[in-house]
Every structure is written in structure tokens, then in C-alpha cells.
Amino acid sequence: MLTTLINVLSSGLIMGGVYAIISMGLSMQYGVARILNVSHGEFIMLGAFLCFTLVRSHVHPILSMLLCVPVMFVIGFVLHRTIYKKLSDVSGSTAAFESNSMLVSFGLMFVVQNVALLLWGSEQKGYTFLMRSVKILGSPIALNRLLVLVFAVAISFAFYIFLERSRLGKAIRAVSQDPSAARLLGVRRTRVAAICFGIGAILAGCAGALITMINQINTSMGMNYTIIAIIVVVLGGMGSIPGSLLGGFILGFIGTVVNYIDPSLSLVAYYLIIIVLLLVKPSGLMGGKS
Amino acid sequence: MQILNGSGVNKAFGGRKAVDNVDFHVDENEILGLIGPNGAGKTTLFNLISGAIKADSGTITYKGRVISGMKPYRICHMGLARTFQKAKNFPDMTVRENVLMGAVFGKKGTDNAAAERKTDEILSFVGLEDFRDKSPGDIALALQKRVEVARALATSPDVLMLDEVMAGLNPTEVGEAMELISKIRGSGVTIIMIEHVMKAIMSLCDRIIVLHHGQKIEEGTPEHISNSKTVIDVYLGE
Ligand SMILES: Nc1ncnc2c1ncn2[C@@H]1O[C@H](COP(=O)(O)OP(=O)(O)OP(=O)(O)O)[C@@H](O)[C@H]1O
Ligand SMILES: [Mg+2]
């Protein structure tokens, strides 16, 4: 019984942490850069394969994850500075930009997926890492899972604190709450949006890297995570970072419990949650405004 | 000494001229009033000056530099700040955090400690200390408007543009707002104010510009404006 409980608890924290990380990334890209990034999952896949490739070249998995950070940031930042900024210059209004940018991210999804398919093929890939287990309260838990748990929880909370405390975090919050007021108070809105897109890519990449430490990966893994991230973002309230943090853990725990009962039911459970939520509180858990 | 100057400024929305070939100037440390009936183009002129929207043609210079076409954040860094007619406070931040945003980002190279200090200074200057930890959505309208003013002041402006900060206030609150505006000017800030409250405009302003259908129809001292036949016709025609 205790073993089951600890199993569910640790799995819930792992899944919840990973969901929180990817959802905060998506939420920020939408809330600040106004891009509903449908290719978010592909960045998770990219992070996973980058990490996997590095590990294959004898780089330590944790170091590989850290290396993903600058690489993913540059990819995200440059993507925004080139494609999305252009798009925002030619779109007459925010609403037009939102629909245009979503279409572009759709296109990007296919591009990234196919490039990945060429580079890494379609088979499952993976490596073994820290398979030993330790006993916690008498129940065995694999070290790699414990490590991912710690990282996932730490990254998601560290990111939240970064938003609350740092100067850049303040700019990000200001732009997400009122972009026109923010820029007239001296915030460089376009720059902040590009940085946010880069940070979103970092979070996706780190989540991908964490996933390689405990699971097999393949080049079509992204879509599933995109769907989950969108569900969490709607659950937490569009654009609300604390909402995504909370929503990620809630969905992670529910997913774990449902998985324990019958894995095929998890997506059904997620959609049920969304339907109930949209009926009860359409703005999401923490979506106060708009 | 002119601090701000516009010549031949034009802006049309879908063929309709919102600001029509307007020339204007603002002298250092004066209070300039901007009045005119609804839809006259007053807010649009603020949007053009602050860089929120781009003019179709015309030039705006500030401290001798052309600012038309510059990004809003750069114009703000140069010392031009504004408030919004429809309050645009950050809803998920406290009053203090709202003001802090202006202090942190409004001037280049402000460090955090200086911004925190500045924020507390401004909060007491405008009399908002007691509301610092409240959400701007939970306080009276007069106070919300004050948060807007405080946030703009926190950017350390040389020119402050106030867009109807007295709209919806009761007579006591209007009096308090007038006091605050004099106090701000007293601290060396140049002020441009859009206002429909005539009593306030007439007693505070050194000079007034009247807009109508996007055009400047009159300009002068409060006495001159209150005796102008053109202005009276426009207001009676409303
Ligand atoms: N972003 C915009 N898009 C389209 N039309 C606009 C826009 N902003 C202003 N207008 C139009 O330009 C004209 C001038 O508007 P503006 O807001 O400048 O008037 P105002 O003098 O500030 O009026 P009020 O006293 O009611 O605030 C109006 O006809 C308005 O509908
Ligand atoms: Mg107006």
C-alpha cells in the first residue's frame, strides 16, 4: 500500500513537474509573444534528441541537458526575431497576428518533425542512466526517476521565482498584463517577446532532456505534449504562469492516477477535466482577467 | 524655451482624419491644456507624441530631437511619460508594483535599489502609501487615476501627458487632483493635460489648445479661450 502510494506520488510529481515546465513555456509564449505555439511539442522532441545525441557522444546526461539551454534559447530567439517579428510587422492587429502566428507555428511543426525524421529516423531511441534504485520509506525508487523529479520540481519553481523577482521577469509580467501600457513605460516589448519565445524553447528543451532520462523517445513524440500543454494552459487560465504551474501538477497527478487504473483512459480523463472546467470556470483556475 | 514641438502632424483612420495638420509647441515647465469635443483627436495626439501609433506625416521634436517614428520605449527613456484615458493599470500587480514598473523600466540604467527607493518616494508624493499593497482594481476610481499618474511619474519624466485624469471624479477629488498637478509642475515637470473639467483647465493652464475634428481651431491663454467666439460656437454647437 505504502509502496503504491509512494509510486503514485513520485510519478505524479515527475509527470506534474514536466507538464508544468512545458506548460509555463507555452503559456508565456502565448501570454507575452501572443503566439499559440502549436510546434511547442516539436521543441520538446528537439530537446530530447539533442540530449540523446550528446549522451551518445559520451556527454553526461545532466551536462547534455544544460547544453540544451543555450541552444534552444538561440533557436527560439532567432525564430522570433526573423519569422514572427516580420509577421507581426505585416499583421495589422493583435488578433490578425495571433491567427497568422498560429498558422506559421503549424507549418513549423511539420518542418521540424520532418527534419528530425531525416536526422534520427522513426525508431524508438533511448539510453540507460542511473537505473539503480534507492529505498524511500521502505519503497524502492529508481535513481533516474528521483533525479528527474528533483529537476522538474526545481526548474518549475525556479522559473516562477525568476518571474516574480528578476527585472526581466517584471518586464514579462508587465507585457503580459498590458502590452501597450508596458511599452509606454519604457519596456522593450518586441525584445521581451523574443526573449520569452526563447525561454519557452528552453523550457521545452529541458523537459525533452528530462524525458530522455526516464523514457524512450521518438521523433513523433511532440504532438502528444503539445496537446497536454494546451490543456494545462486552458486549465490554468490562458497566459497565467502560476496557473500553468498549478495546472501542470494537477494534470500530472490525475494522469498518474488514471494511468495506474487504465493507461488508455488518460487522454479521456484530460478532456473530461477540460469540459468540466469550461462549464464551471471558463477563464481557467487562475485566469481572473479578460 | 520649447521642449516639445509638432509641425504638420497628420493621422487618419480609414480615411477619416483624426489629427489634421496640427502644429503645436510646449514650453518648458508650463501647463498646456488640450481641450475639444469628444472625438476631436486629443487622445490620438497623445498617442502620436508617445509613439503608441505612427503619424501619417509631420514631425514631432522633443528636446531638439525628432521623435516621430521612434519606438515608445525610447521616447519614454528620453523623459516623456503619459497616463491613459481608460486606466491601464496592471491588474495582477499591487499598487506599489504598478508604480515600480515605471521606476524600473522608465529610465535607462536604473538599478533595483534605486527603483525601489523612487517608488516609495512617488507613493508618498502622490499620497498612495496607505494603498500600496492593494490591487488597483479594488480601490476608488480617483485612486486608480492616481496610480496611473504615479506610475508615469516613476519614469522620471520631464514632460508628463495627462489624459482626462479628472473624468468621473467628484468635486472634492477634482480639487485634490488639481493640487497634485500643481505640485507636479512645482517639481519642475512640464505638463500637457487633456481635460473636460473646465474649472480645472481654466485655473491650472498657462495656455490652451482647442482641437475640433482633428484641427487646431484656437490657441491662447485661458482668458483668450473663454472669450473666443470660435470656441464658444464649437461648444454650443455640441
Ligand atoms: N485606433 C483607432 N482606430 C480607429 N479610429 C480611431 C482610433 N483611435 C481614434 N480613432 C478615431 O479618431 C477620432 C479621434 O479620437 P480621439 O480618441 O483622439 O478623440 P478624443 O479627442 O480623445 O475624444 P474624447 O474626448 O472622447 O476622449 C475619433 O473619431 C475616433 O473614433
Ligand atoms: Mg480622448
What does this 3D model show about the protein?
The complex is a heterodimer of chains A (290) and B (238). By secondary structure, chain A is an all-alpha fold. In chain A, 76% of the residues lie in helices and 3% in strands. Chain A has helices spanning 2-31, 40-56, 61-90, 94-120, 143-165, 167-177, 179-184, 189-214, 222-236, 241-261, 266-280; strands at 133-136, 139-142. In chain A, strands 1-2 form a two-stranded antiparallel ribbon. The longest helix of chain A has 30 residues, at 2-31. The termini of chain A are far apart. In chain A, 48% of the residues are buried. In chain B, 39% of the residues lie in helices and 26% in strands. Chain B has 9 helices and 10 strands. Chain B has helices at residues 42-50, 72-77, 95-105, 112-126, 141-153, 171-186, 198-204, 222-227, 229-237; strands spanning 2-13, 16-27, 31-35, 57-62, 65-66, 80-82, 159-163, 190-194, 207-212, 215-220. In chain B, the strands form 2 sheets. Chain B has a 6-stranded mixed beta sheet, with helices on both faces. Classes of the chains: A mainly alpha (290), B alpha/beta (238). The interface between A and B is medium-sized, with 19 and 28 residues.
Strands across the major sheet of chain A, in which order?
1-2
Predict the CATH topology of the domain at 1-79 and 160-166 and 190-238 in chain B: Rossmann fold
Low-confidence stretches of chain B: none
CA-based gyration radius of chain A = 19 Å
**Ions and ligands:** adenosine-5'-triphosphate, magnesium ion
Keywords:
A: two-stranded antiparallel sheet, B: 238 residues, alpha/beta, Rossmann fold, four-stranded antiparallel β-sheet, 10 strands, globular, binds adenosine-5'-triphosphate, binds magnesium ion
Quick summary of this structure?
With 290 residues, chain A is mostly helical. Chain A has eleven helices and two strands, in the order ααααββααααααα. Chain A is globular and about 60 Å long.
Describe the secondary structure blueprint for this structure:
The complex is a heterodimer of chains A (about 290) and B (about 240).
Chain A: H1 2-31, H2 40-56, H3 61-90, H4 94-120, E1 133-136, E2 139-142, H5 143-165, H6 167-177, H7 179-184, H8 189-214, H9 222-236, H10 241-261, H11 266-280
Antiparallel strand pairs in A: 1-2
Chain B: E1 2-13, E2 16-27, E3 31-35, H1 42-50, E4 57-62, E5 65-66, H2 72-77, E6 80-82, H3 95-105, H4 112-126, H5 141-153, E7 159-163, H6 171-186, E8 190-194, H7 198-204, E9 207-212, E10 215-220, H8 222-227, H9 229-237
Parallel strand pairs in B: 3-8, 3-9, 6-7, 7-8
Antiparallel strand pairs in B: 1-2, 1-4, 4-5, 9-10
Helix pairs in contact in B: 3-4, 3-5, 4-5
Bound molecules: adenosine-5'-triphosphate and magnesium ion (MG).
